[in-house]
Amino acid sequence: MISFENVSKTYPGQERPALRNMSLEIERGEFVFVIGSSGSGKSTFMRLILREERPTTGRVIVAGKDLSRLSNWKLPQHRRLIGTVFQDFRLLPNKTVFQNVAFALEVIGKPKSHLVKVVPEVIDLVGLGGKEDRLPNELSGGEQQRVAVARAFVNRPMVLIADEPTGNLDPETSVGIMKLLDRINRTGTTVVMVTHDQAIVNQMRKRVLELDQGALVRDQARGVYGYVR
Amino acid sequence: MRIQYVLQEIGHGLRRNLTMVIAVIVSTAVALTMLGAGLLMLEQTKAMQGYWYGKVEVAVYMCNTNDVGHATNCTSVITAAESAAIYTKLHGTPYVENIIPESQAQAYQHYEQAYGSTALGQTATEQDMEQNFRVKLSDPSKFQVVQDSVGNMVGVASVVDEQQLLQPLFTFIHIAEYSAAGVAAVMLVLAFLLIFNTVRLSAFSRRRETGIMRLVGASNFYIQMPFLLEGAVAGLLGGALASGVLIAIKAFFIDGIVAPHLSSIQFIGWRPFVFIVPLLLVVGIMMSVAASVFTLRKYLRV
Ligand SMILES: Nc1ncnc2c1ncn2[C@@H]1O[C@H](COP(=O)(O)OP(=O)(O)OP(=O)(O)O)[C@@H](O)[C@H]1O
Ligand SMILES: [Mg+2]
């Protein structure tokens, strides 16, 4: 599904690479945690999958496509394969829950008849049934993140990537979001999640990738957070 | 493409930056008014040049009934023998390259082409015209040679340097044309900068939406469309305003005030507007769309 072949990334004007010589393979339907201290390159890893950045050397292949060969006009097609969730939710403040989720389909040209069918389904799936007409500022942080997950998932992407989705939430609310991501993973969607939350990683027992100063220092199936080498 | 979404976005965009959009429309309008004015002045010089302008330098007019008793060499209406003598003399004059005889009927026809719509043109008759020779010189500055050669011959009413007659006026119009072109160029640059800034602000204030659109895989076209249409609408309004100003100048200033006082000058009609108005609209749209595309390439990266 996702494969990195000797990928290094050095941002322009930086001396130290943000990622160095990273090789790995993520299969369809996997659930992967990406951990590591601040500045270790986790978000860079995610941006390479989205092709918001290109590797300095090496190849990133997603769904059989070499992203460095992907032309700019095919990029939107690539992004439709991937749903994205961030720490700061990134909802549109003047749109309702329904409109925020529907927005993701509208702007890729899906017809209205399609929206009215799938949007309520997804809102139910994330547990916000009945709150379709609320504005983001009328929701709790956890609920806002559920809207963001609904928006990322409404187009049924093959991959869902989440960069610290529970970073702004209290532990209990975080568990709710984790359960939701787990459910989405069970529908066959590959989930890649960056987190600093030890409890979550230890509890879920999924594959763990640990980065340290841009290097992949651990790739462990059913891993835990505080693993000592 | 969902029309409603697009229209809504344009509406929002235009309202959000209302002052900037007004600035864009006004500067575009001024630029295009100057462009249009320049083109109209070009048309005006053409309208005044008449049939012979640029083809010959000198006209040798021969006596008609009106001239008898008024012009020194006109004791009677020109006879065939007199005109043959003048022709022969012209033929032997240095610098004369070509001599084209023009009958009263032809002269009337060309006169009506040039002045038909003016007060002069409406009162003139064929009998008022003078039979004449149009003379082309190998050196246009040698008018005096022709004047000296045939000016005092019997039957010659007057020798006229056609170029000289219109030259000062044309020089004036050309200066005005160049000034208009200069102002148009400066205003175009100003309009471009204003559009650049407006689109930049617009892109900045919508960065949340466009960021999400990029992430969920909206096409570049879809993301940029509202901005481009915003620019196009502003450009179109600028072009329409410019057209309105030019039409008003023609209707109220030229036709209403100037023309009645200058009955000897043929002013432009409405015909040039048929191409100038669409031209201004198209240039307005293209200019602002081009400026928008340029800005978006910089500030709305994939
Ligand atoms: N756009 C950029 N330009 C230059 N350097 C950057 C850029 N983005 C990230 N970096 C650098 O690359 C390195 C990795 O950054 P990255 O954002 O991937 O870290 P991270 O693991 O996500 O950290 P955090 O846990 O704090 O989010 C850091 O040293 C950072 O300063
Ligand atoms: Mg990060």
Automatic annotation (TrEMBL), chain A:
<dbReference type="InterPro" id="IPR017871">
    <property type="entry name" value="ABC_transporter-like_CS"/>
</dbReference>
<dbReference type="GO" id="GO:0022857">
    <property type="term" value="F:transmembrane transporter activity"/>
</dbReference>
<dbReference type="InterPro" id="IPR003439">
    <property type="entry name" value="ABC_transporter-like_ATP-bd"/>
</dbReference>
<comment type="similarity">
    <text>Belongs to the ABC transporter superfamily.</text>
</comment>
<comment type="subunit">
    <text>Homodimer. Forms a membrane-associated complex with FtsX.</text>
</comment>
<protein>
    <recommendedName>
        <fullName>Cell division ATP-binding protein FtsE</fullName>
    </recommendedName>
</protein>
<feature type="domain" description="ABC transporter">
    <location>
        <begin position="2"/>
        <end position="228"/>
    </location>
</feature>
<dbReference type="InterPro" id="IPR015854">
    <property type="entry name" value="ABC_transpr_LolD-like"/>
</dbReference>
<keyword id="KW-0067">ATP-binding</keyword>
<comment type="function">
    <text>Part of the ABC transporter FtsEX involved in cellular division. Has ATPase activity.</text>
</comment>
<keyword id="KW-1003">Cell membrane</keyword>
<dbReference type="InterPro" id="IPR027417">
    <property type="entry name" value="P-loop_NTPase"/>
</dbReference>
<keyword id="KW-0132">Cell division</keyword>
<dbReference type="InterPro" id="IPR003593">
    <property type="entry name" value="AAA+_ATPase"/>
</dbReference>
<dbReference type="GO" id="GO:0051301">
    <property type="term" value="P:cell division"/>
</dbReference>
<dbReference type="GO" id="GO:0005886">
    <property type="term" value="C:plasma membrane"/>
</dbReference>
<keyword id="KW-0547">Nucleotide-binding</keyword>
<dbReference type="InterPro" id="IPR005286">
    <property type="entry name" value="Cell_div_FtsE"/>
</dbReference>
<keyword id="KW-0131">Cell cycle</keyword>
<dbReference type="GO" id="GO:0005524">
    <property type="term" value="F:ATP binding"/>
</dbReference>
<dbReference type="GO" id="GO:0016887">
    <property type="term" value="F:ATP hydrolysis activity"/>
</dbReference>
<dbReference type="Pfam" id="PF00005">
    <property type="entry name" value="ABC_tran"/>
</dbReference>
UniProtKB/TrEMBL annotation, chain B:
<dbReference type="Pfam" id="PF02687">
    <property type="entry name" value="FtsX"/>
</dbReference>
<dbReference type="InterPro" id="IPR003838">
    <property type="entry name" value="ABC3_permease_C"/>
</dbReference>
<keyword id="KW-0132">Cell division</keyword>
<feature type="transmembrane region" description="Helical">
    <location>
        <begin position="178"/>
        <end position="199"/>
    </location>
</feature>
<keyword id="KW-1003">Cell membrane</keyword>
<keyword id="KW-0812">Transmembrane</keyword>
<feature type="domain" description="FtsX extracellular">
    <location>
        <begin position="56"/>
        <end position="159"/>
    </location>
</feature>
<dbReference type="GO" id="GO:0005886">
    <property type="term" value="C:plasma membrane"/>
</dbReference>
<keyword id="KW-1133">Transmembrane helix</keyword>
<dbReference type="GO" id="GO:0051301">
    <property type="term" value="P:cell division"/>
</dbReference>
<feature type="transmembrane region" description="Helical">
    <location>
        <begin position="273"/>
        <end position="296"/>
    </location>
</feature>
<dbReference type="InterPro" id="IPR040690">
    <property type="entry name" value="FtsX_ECD"/>
</dbReference>
<dbReference type="InterPro" id="IPR004513">
    <property type="entry name" value="FtsX"/>
</dbReference>
<feature type="transmembrane region" description="Helical">
    <location>
        <begin position="21"/>
        <end position="42"/>
    </location>
</feature>
<dbReference type="Pfam" id="PF18075">
    <property type="entry name" value="FtsX_ECD"/>
</dbReference>
<comment type="similarity">
    <text>Belongs to the ABC-4 integral membrane protein family. FtsX subfamily.</text>
</comment>
<comment type="subunit">
    <text>Forms a membrane-associated complex with FtsE.</text>
</comment>
<keyword id="KW-0131">Cell cycle</keyword>
<feature type="transmembrane region" description="Helical">
    <location>
        <begin position="227"/>
        <end position="253"/>
    </location>
</feature>
<feature type="domain" description="ABC3 transporter permease C-terminal">
    <location>
        <begin position="183"/>
        <end position="296"/>
    </location>
</feature>
<dbReference type="InterPro" id="IPR047929">
    <property type="entry name" value="FtsX_actino"/>
</dbReference>
<keyword id="KW-0472">Membrane</keyword>
